[in-house]
């Protein structure tokens, strides 16, 4: 059977384009609200993902339309070093159970298979995706197609009321925000720190720059650096997503400076700054089984789990795992 035959009669599919940005974002938000009661994906986030280096609409996306021309399904596919492929797909709640999800899944797997010749010859190649723990229909679809749950990731949040404790800094540490021209230094520190996180595969500076700096919500005054002299000890890169709240997109402390309270101080400082700017809620994403104990830090800061996502994976080729799986303590 050809993949296109999986679509219901009268439904059509084509690669996405930037003209579909608003329609696809609305679709994603509709699906999020149906499953979890609120949306969390911004137009800026989707736009940034579609502008990543090595992303191609023609090969890496599909959008599905109903006979009436409504956007009812969409998927996009990316990769890290061609070995760790990932997909992000959605089907409108009113159109589920008609084979659209199966179609999008097959499109994503077919595209991911094309990455295999470009991966390191001995590398394990897999396709992964995240799904809300409440979305049992998608979990069944994935499992019926050979995917297995491998990890849980939490969205944690806190509602701010102005009572956040003041940040306490270890002796000799100072706080500053991102200065112009320091992008590559911050990228290198970010990469160094996140080698200790499960599933990490090194990215390129161009990928990091697009995701962290070249986006509408980028604000260097929300990129906080804990400095020990002229060395970066820890960092919190935050974005104000307006109606979606404040986000601590990346929080890290370098190995030599861990267990000095820097992560907690950075969080408290970020909370206070968001509150000063009128932001009522702050969120972040974290590996529920964090190798560095990040979940305990966030709970100590007053955050709680607001959403549980399950990462599913399907092995496309056996081999050497390139991503971080454990950390020497």
TrEMBL record:
<dbReference type="GO" id="GO:0016747">
    <property type="term" value="F:acyltransferase activity, transferring groups other than amino-acyl groups"/>
</dbReference>
<feature type="domain" description="N-acetyltransferase">
    <location>
        <begin position="173"/>
        <end position="317"/>
    </location>
</feature>
<protein>
    <submittedName>
        <fullName>Putative acetyltransferase, GNAT</fullName>
    </submittedName>
</protein>
<dbReference type="InterPro" id="IPR016181">
    <property type="entry name" value="Acyl_CoA_acyltransferase"/>
</dbReference>
<feature type="domain" description="N-acetyltransferase">
    <location>
        <begin position="11"/>
        <end position="161"/>
    </location>
</feature>
<dbReference type="InterPro" id="IPR000182">
    <property type="entry name" value="GNAT_dom"/>
</dbReference>
<dbReference type="Pfam" id="PF00583">
    <property type="entry name" value="Acetyltransf_1"/>
</dbReference>
<keyword id="KW-0012">Acyltransferase</keyword>
<keyword id="KW-0808">Transferase</keyword>
<dbReference type="InterPro" id="IPR050680">
    <property type="entry name" value="YpeA/RimI_acetyltransf"/>
</dbReference>
<dbReference type="Pfam" id="PF13508">
    <property type="entry name" value="Acetyltransf_7"/>
</dbReference>
């Amino acid at each position: 059977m050809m993949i296109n035959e999986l679509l219901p009669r009268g439904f059509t599919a084509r690669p996405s384009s930037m003209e579909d940005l608003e329609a696809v974002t609305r679709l994603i938000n509709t699906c999020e609200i149906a499953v979890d009661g609120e949306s969390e994906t911004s137009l800026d986030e989707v736009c940034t993902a579609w502008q990543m280096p090595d992303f191609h609409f023609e090969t890496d996306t599909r959008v599905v339309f109903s006979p009436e021309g409504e956007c009812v399904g969409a998927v996009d596919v990316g990769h890290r070093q061609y070995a760790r492929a990932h997909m992000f797909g959605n089907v409108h709640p009113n159109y589920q159970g008609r084979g659209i999800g199966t179609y999008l899944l097959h499109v994503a797997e077919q595209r991911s298979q094309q990455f295999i010749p470009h991966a390191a010859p001995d590398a394990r190649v897999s396709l992964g995706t995240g799904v809300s723990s409440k979305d049992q229909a998608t979990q069944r679809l994935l499992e019926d197609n050979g995917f297995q749950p491998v990890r849980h990731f939490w969205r944690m949040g806190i509602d701010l009321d102005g009572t956040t404790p003041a940040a306490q800094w270890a002796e000799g540490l100072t706080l500053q925000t991102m200065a112009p021209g320091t992008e590559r230094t911050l990228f290198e520190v970010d990469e160094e720190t996140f080698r200790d996180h499960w599933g990490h595969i090194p990215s390129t500076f161009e990928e990091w720059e697009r995701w962290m700096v070249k986006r509408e919500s980028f604000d260097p005054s929300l990129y906080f650096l804990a400095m020990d002299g002229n060395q970066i000890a820890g960092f919190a890169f935050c974005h104000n997503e307006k109606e979606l709240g404040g986000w601590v997109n990346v929080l890290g402390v370098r190995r030599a400076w861990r267990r000095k309270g820097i992560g907690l101080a950075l969080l408290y400082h970020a909370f206070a700054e968001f509150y000063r700017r009128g932001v009522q809620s702050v969120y972040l994403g974290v590996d529920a089984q964090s190798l560095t104990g990040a979940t305990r830090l966030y709970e100590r800061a007053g955050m709680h789990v607001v959403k549980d996502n399950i990462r599913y994976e399907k092995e496309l080729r056996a081999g050497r795992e390139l991503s971080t799986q454990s950390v020497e303590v």
